[in-house]
């Protein structure tokens, strides 16, 4: 088994990504949703709102970064795996190669993380230009990396489980999209009714949103970090198991 | 060498289960070009998938170069090259990028030289930096063959290698396959083209509904059912065929028929299949 078997898997995704970047519409489509939210909520609704003593824009931008990194990491990996497994059959080339199943997982997850980080970088640039009190802290970086890793692994799980490309959209509509809205991206969740709050605190993105806005570690940050690591490990183990058990 | 013993694969669906491969036992020798022949749905691709570690058998055992497909899949993957039935090239990447990724996955030494050698072998060197999506069906099949040979596998699996190709391109592909045979490789081909099996294979296994119904060289198989066939259309418009072991016997039979459209020809593997399975290869 190759030690660096993950690299060709990663390289292939990067070659695809480079080609996408060269297409004019791609950058625009990657930015359009967060920019719409930024204009609608940040520059529109948020002008007259302050949260915890900071501007709404400074509150919103980390949330948009978390949301966008989740969407891009998850969608890239789940779609790639689903399509390559069921339609293009290119996944079979990996399975028939002398590389470890964990190499396939690692390559796909790293590619998903790059995609998530790229989309996040676009929003961070807009944030730095438009919100003077928006800061990037060490915890911001940790939360962002962990979020990309976690949702890329979830993408592997969904990409391996789905039986058609339509299924991927169904998972996204029932899990990813509600999480984007209710997990603290646009408003603090601590004022929500208790039963809703319990459900919201079970979602991984909630804890990314908590961690990404912290300036330093406190009890809440440790709990959120622990929960994120738990989810990341869970999805990693499930993804590894699904790839290892691949059988046509 | 490839050894199959009682190999079985069952697919389950809502209506029950289908035995796609049912107790298949055979041995393929080193350096042999072996063909699995049968109609669509006979189980040929499923057999290839099990031999190439893509599917796990539900029963029975399979050893490729002495390694068990279930217990030692990694060892087998180091030794095989596969041309699948469905084109699984990266369509948005160039020919060279496709081979580069494959070379890295298989740890091919001196990869650039090997890539050039294999692209030249299939006459695609001039198109090395073209995106695969722009290739014709024949070019894509040739690129699949170049990719499968890149790691210099000791065993080459070709699943319906010339499906969808026009006759001229098909013959070019056969020439490429014959070249790999000269290099001493074991080649396993699935096909439902009779002439492909006859043109390329040392021995042929005929599959019908997952079961092996005949196994021998094409000549021996034809000899076993009779080498000559008398054909004519009867008064109700049906094709009637009489198989004869002897040429004179066949001509005597033809002479005795009152029908004006009687023909005498040599038998082929489809006639063997019809005789043994009672149906045509489609």
Helical content of chain A (DSSP H or I, runs of 4+): over 70%
| Anisotropy-based shape of chain B | globular
- Main sheet overview of chain B: 6 strands, mixed
Q: How many independent structural domains of chain A? A: 1
- Helix and strand sequence of chain B: EEEHEEHEHHHEHEHEEHEEHEH
Strand order of the largest sheet of chain B: 6-7-8-3-9-10
CATH architecture field of the largest domain in chain B: 3-Layer(aba) Sandwich
Question: Roughly what is the average pLDDT of chain B, rounded to an integer?
Answer: 88
Question: Structural class, from helix and strand content of chain B?
Answer: alpha/beta
| Rg measurement of chain B, Å | 21 Å
Number of helices of chain A: 10
Number of strands of chain B: 13
| Poorly predicted runs of 5 or more residues of chain B | none
CATH superfamily of the largest domain in chain B: P-loop containing nucleotide triphosphate hydrolases
Number of domains of chain B: 3
What is the total tally of β strands of chain A? 2
Order of helices and strands of chain A: HHEEHHHHHHHH
Distance linking N and C termini of chain B: 30 Å
Describe the protein in words.
The complex is a heterodimer of chains A (248) and B (282). Chain A has one domain. The mean pLDDT of chain A is 89. Chain A starts with 5 loop residues before the first helix and ends with a helix. With 248 residues, chain A is an all-alpha fold. Chain A is built from 10 helices and 2 strands; from the N terminus they run ααββαααααααα. A two-stranded antiparallel sheet of chain A has the order 1-2. Helices cover 76% and strands 2% of the residues of chain A. Chain A is globular, with a radius of gyration of 18 Å. In chain A, a hairpin with a 2-residue loop joins β1 and β2 (54-55). Chain B is of the alpha/beta class and 282 residues long. Chain B folds into 3 domains: 2-79 and 153-217, P-loop containing nucleotide triphosphate hydrolases (Rossmann fold, 3-Layer(aba) Sandwich); 92-149; 227-266, no CATH class. Chain B has 10 helices and 13 strands. Chain B has helices at residues 44-51, 73-77, 95-105, 111-121, 137-149, 167-182, 194-200, 218-225, 247-256, 269-277; strands spanning 2-13, 16-28, 33-37, 59-64, 67-68, 80-83, 155-159, 186-191, 203-208, 211-216, 228-233, 239-244, 263-266. In chain B, the strands form 3 sheets. A 6-stranded mixed sheet of chain B has the order 6-7-8-3-9-10, sandwiched between helices. In chain B, α4 packs across α5, α5 runs parallel beside α6 and α8 packs across α10. The mean pLDDT of chain B is 88. At the A-B interface, α1 and α4 of A face α3 of B.
């Amino acid at each position: 088994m190759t030690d660096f078997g993950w690299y060709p898997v990663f390289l292939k995704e990067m070659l695809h990504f480079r080609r996408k970047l060269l297409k004019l519409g791609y950058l625009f489509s990657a930015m359009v949703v967060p920019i719409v939210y930024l204009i609608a909520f940040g520059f529109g609704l948020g002008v007259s709102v302050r949260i915890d003593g900071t501007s709404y824009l400074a509150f919103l931008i980390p949330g948009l970064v978390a949301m966008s990194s989740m969407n891009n990491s998850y969608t890239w990996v789940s779609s790639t795996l689903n399509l390559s497994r069921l339609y293009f059959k290119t996944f079979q080339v990996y399975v028939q190669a002398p590389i470890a199943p964990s190499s396939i997982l690692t390559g796909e997850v790293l590619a998903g993380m790059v995609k998530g980080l790229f989309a996040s970088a676009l929003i961070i640039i807009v944030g730095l230009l438009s919100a003077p009190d928006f800061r990037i802290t060490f915890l911001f970086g940790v939360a962002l990396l962990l979020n990309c890793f976690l949702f890329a692994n979830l993408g592997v799980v969904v990409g391996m489980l789905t039986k058609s490309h339509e299924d991927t959209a169904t998972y996204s509509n029932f899990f990813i999209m509600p999480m984007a809205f209710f997990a603290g991206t646009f408003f603090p969740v601590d004022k929500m009714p208790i039963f809703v709050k319990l459900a919201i605190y079970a979602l991984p993105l909630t804890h990314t949103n908590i961690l990404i806005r912290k300036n330093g570690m406190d009890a809440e940050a440790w709990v959120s970090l622990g929960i994120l690591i738990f989810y990341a490990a869970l999805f990693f183990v499930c993804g590894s198991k699904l790839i290892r058990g691949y059988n046509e | 060498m490839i050894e199959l013993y009682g190999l079985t694969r069952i697919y389950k669906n809502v209506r029950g289960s289908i035995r796609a491969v049912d107790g298949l036992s055979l041995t393929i020798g080193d350096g042999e070009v072996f063909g699995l022949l049968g109609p669509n749905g006979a189980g040929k691709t499923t057999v290839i998938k099990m031999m190439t570690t893509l599917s796990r058998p539900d029963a029975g055992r399979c050893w490729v170069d002495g390694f068990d497909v279930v217990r030692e899949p990694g060892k087998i993957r180091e030794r095989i090259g596969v041309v699948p039935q469905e084109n699984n090239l990266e369509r948005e990447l160039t020919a060279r990028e496709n081979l580069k990724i494959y070379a890295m996955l298989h740890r091919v030494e001196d990869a650039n030289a090997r890539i050039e050698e294999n692209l030249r072998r299939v006459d695609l060197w001039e198109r090395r930096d073209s995106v695969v999506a722009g290739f014709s069906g024949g070019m894509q099949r040739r690129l699949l063959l170049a990719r499968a040979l890149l790691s210099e596998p000791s065993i080459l699996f070709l699943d319906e290698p010339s499906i969808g190709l026009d006759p001229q391109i098909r013959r070019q592909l056969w020439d490429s396959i014959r070249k790999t045979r000269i290099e001493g490789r074991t080649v396993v081909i699935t096909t439902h083209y009779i002439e492909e099996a006859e043109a390329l294979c040392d021995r042929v296994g005929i599959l019908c509904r997952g079961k092996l119904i005949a196994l021998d060289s094409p000549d021996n198989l034809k000899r076993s059912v009779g080498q000559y066939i008398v054909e004519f259309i009867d008064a109700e418009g049906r094709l009637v065929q009489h198989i004869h072991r002897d040429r004179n016997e066949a001509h005597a039979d033809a002479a005795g028929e009152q029908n004006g459209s009687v023909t005498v020809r040599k038998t082929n593997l489809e006639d063997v299949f019809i005789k043994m399975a009672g149906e045509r290869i489609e």
